[in-house]
# Entry
Amino acid sequence: MFNHFAPPNLRYSFAFLIASIALSSLSLPICAQDQDKDSAGVIASDKATAKDVGLPIYPGSKPRKDKDDNSPAANLGLWGGGSGFKLVVLKMESNDSPEKIAVFYKKALSKYGPVLDCSNPPPNSAGVSKDDSKTLTCGDDKPDKGGVLFKSGTKERQHIVAIQPNGQGTFYQLLNVGVWGSK
# Structure
């Protein structure tokens, strides 16, 4: 699902396109963000930390570089006038099993609220009204075959962990996605 980034020269163009779409959607509710409402700015970097993504790094993990030697991280954002978009991604790998990493991240994600297991999503009718704009759902998100996908937070501020078996170890990705705006 989130396994591949565009080549570095296209990555930033894609980020600005996504950010423009997000900013043009002014009917989004306001949510907590890291940027001041009265400021404006842009972030486009291939460097990100555990603090940026809002989740700890699984012990003993190392950054994963793809065969194309793309960066194992992306930190993209655009904000101004009370609206904004943020995407932080870290690609990591570990020699431990996907099950051990899944247990670790299910606990880590719980600080943002209930953890959805999109590998086994609950039925859509599980007490979520269609008018509840802040309730996070799996939607169409699902892991690649054999993987696990967890989500926590709200629709406006999501933390996502995608875990895949990788030979004798595990490949996983940590995402922090935020969109905010004013009505």
